[in-house]
From TrEMBL:
Domains as described in the record: Consists of a single catalytic domain, but remodels its active-site architecture via a large structural change to exhibit dual activities.
One example of a Gene Ontology biological process annotation: gluconeogenesis
Residues that, per the record, bind dihydroxyacetone phosphate: 22, 136, 269, 290
The protein's name: Fructose-1,6-bisphosphate aldolase/phosphatase
Active site: 15 (proton acceptor), 232 (proton donor/acceptor), 235 (schiff-base intermediate with dhap)
InterPro entries named among the record's database cross-references: FBPase_V, FBPase_V_sf
Organism field: Aeropyrum pernix (strain ATCC 700893 / DSM 11879 / JCM 9820 / NBRC 100138 / K1)
Length: 387
C-alpha cells in the first residue's frame, strides 16, 4: 500500500425480498436503504453512496475513510438492510429478509448472510473503478473473467504492451469449503492457478494484487450462503470491484471477458448451469427460468472519497451479440431439462433441496447381482466395500 490517506470502497449486498418472486428489487426498498445511507452521509460516517439492484439483490455501494471490515460501516449496511426488509414485509414482497440469516448484528456483517467486497487504496489522481453485480449465480462466476482480465494477454493487451502491467498479478484464491487461501502468481503459475479456479464452486478468486507493488486491483464477495446457513437459501449473487486504467487493465479490458457469456452455476433454484448475460441497469431483473443469470457493470470515478457516476457500462450495443449468444445458449441448454450438465452435479446439488427428495427413495433400492463388488463413497470421499 502506498503512503497517504486511504479511501475505502465497500460494496455490500443482500436479497431482502423482491417483487414478483425473485425477479427484481422493489423501488421502495431502494428508497428505504437510501434514507439510512443519506443520514449516515450527513453525519459523516460515509463520504458518498449509490444504491441500486442486481435482479432481486439490493446493492449498497459506499465510500468512506474507515478501512475494510469496519464495524460502523458493516452495522450501517445491516441497518439499511433491516429497514428495507421492514418495507419488504409491509409490501408483502417475496422472501422478505431472505439473506439476513441472523437476528442480531455482532460487529461484522460477514457470516450473517450479506455479500461483501471492500477495497482500500490511496487514490490516484484519477481513480476509475468498475463495480460488477450478478444475480442467480455464485462468487466463482467471476473466476473466468478475472483470469482473462489479469492473466490472459489475448484479453488484456496491456499485459504485453504496458510496462506497468507487464510483471503480472497475484491471485488470492480461497477454498470456500476448507476456509483456506493460497496466493498464486501470474504469469509464472497460471497452470496451478487454473488447476484450482477451474472448480469455481470450491475455489474462488478473492483478491487480485498488482505484482510490482502489491496494489489491490480487484476484490470479490466470496460468501457462500449455503455454507453459512447449512441449507439452500437462494444463490450468493456475488459482487466484484475492479480498479482500471493507468497501471491497471483499461476499462475496455476489464469488460472484454463478458463479451463471452460463459456458463455459470445458479439460475433456477440455484441448481442449473446457464450463460452469464451482461445487461444494462434497465434489464437488471430475471425472468426466463428465473434467469438467465445476469451481471451489470457500473463505472465510477472516485475523487477525494466521492463516487462520481455511475456509467452503465453494459448498456451498449457492443454487448448485444453477447446477449444474443446468451439467449442461444439458454435455449440450447434448457432443452436438457432436468439432466446434467444443465442441472448441476451431485456434489453441488447437496446444497439444494434435492437430497430431501432422494431421501424418500433410499429405502426402495434393493441389492442386485452386479458381477463385481460395488463400492460406495463415504462422506470422507474414500471408496469402501459394500457390506
Ligand atoms: O434461485 C432462485 C432465487 O435465488 P436468489 O433469491 O436470487 O438468490 C430462484 O430460482 C428460486 O430458487 C426459485 O424461484 C424457487 O423459489 P422458492 O419458491 O423456493 O422461494
Ligand atoms: Mg431472491
Ligand atoms: Mg438474487
Ligand atoms: Mg441470492
Amino acid at each position: 500500500m502506498s503512503e497517504g490517506r486511504t479511501t475505502t470502497v465497500s460494496v455490500i449486498k443482500a436479497d431482502i425480498g423482491s417483487l414478483a418472486g425473485h425477479h427484481r428489487v422493489h423501488p421502495d426498498t431502494i428508497l428505504a436503504a437510501s434514507r439510512v445511507l443519506a443520514e449516515a452521509k450527513r453525519k459523516g460516517v460515509i463520504k458518498s453512496f449509490y444504491v441500486t439492484n442486481a435482479g432481486d439483490d439490493l446493492q449498497l455501494i459506499m465510500t468512506h475513510f474507515k478501512g475494510v471490515d469496519n464495524p460502523e460501516i458493516h452495522e450501517l449496511a445491516w441497518t439499511a438492510f433491516r429497514e428495507a426488509t421492514k418495507v419488504a414485509k409491509d409490501l408483502g414482497l417475496y422472501a422478505a429478509g431472505q439473506d439476513l440469516l441472523s437476528d442480531a448484528f455482532s460487529g461484522n456483517i460477514r457470516g450473517l448472510g450479506p455479500g461483501v467486497a471492500e477495497m482500500e487504496f490511496v487514490e490516484r489522481p484519477s481513480e476509475p473503478i468498475v463495480v460488477f453485480m450478478a444475480d442467480k449465480t455464485e462468487p466463482g462466476a467471476f473466476n473466468l473473467p478475472l483470469y482473462k482480465i489479469f492473466a490472459d494477454p489475448f484479453n488484456t493487451a496491456g499485459l504485453v504492451i504496458d510496462p506497468r502491467l507487464h510483471d503480472g498479478f497475484i491471485f488470492e484464491v480461497l477454498d470456500v469449503f476448507e476456509g483456506k487461501a493460497v496466493e498464486l502468481r501470474a504469469p509464472e503459475e497460471i497452470y496451478d492457478l487454473l488447476a484450482l479456479i477451474g472448480t469455481p464452486s470450491r475455489y474462488v478468486v478473492k483478491r487480485v494484487y498488482r505484482k510490482s507493488d502489491r496494489e489491490i486491483a480487484a476484490v470479490v464477495s466470496s460468501e457462500r450462503l449455503s455454507l453459512i446457513a447449512g441449507r439452500y437459501v437462494g444463490k450468493d449473487d456475488p459482487v466484484m470491484i475492479v480498479r482500471a486504467q493507468s497501471g491497471f487493465p483499461a476499462v475496455g479490458e476489464v469488460l472484454e471477458p463478458f463479451a463471452f457469456p460463459h456458463l455459470v452455476a445458479g439460475w433456477m433454484r440455484g441448481s442449473h448451469h446457464g450463460p452469464l448475460m451482461p445487461v444494462g441497469l434497465k434489464d437488471s431483473k430475471v425472468s426466463r427460468f428465473d434467469g438467465p443469470p445476469r451481471v451489470i457493470a457500473l463505472g465510477f470515478q472516485v475523487k477525494n472519497g466521492e463516487l462520481i457516476g455511475p456509467a452503465d457500462l453494459f448498456d451498449d450495443p457492443a454487448f448485444d451479440e453477447a446477449r444474443r449468444q446468451a439467449q442461444m445458449i439458454a435455449d440450447y441448454i434448457r432443452r436438457h431439462g432436468p439432466f446434467m450438465p444443465h442441472r448441476l452435479g451431485p456434489e453441488e446439488m447437496e446444497y439444494t433441496t434435492l437430497p430431501e427428495v432422494l431421501k424418500r427413495l433410499k429405502d426402495r433400492f434393493k441389492p442386485v447381482e452386479m458381477g463385481y463388488k460395488p463400492k460406495v463413497k463415504h462422506e470422507s470421499g474414500e471408496a469402501a466395500d459394500v457390506d
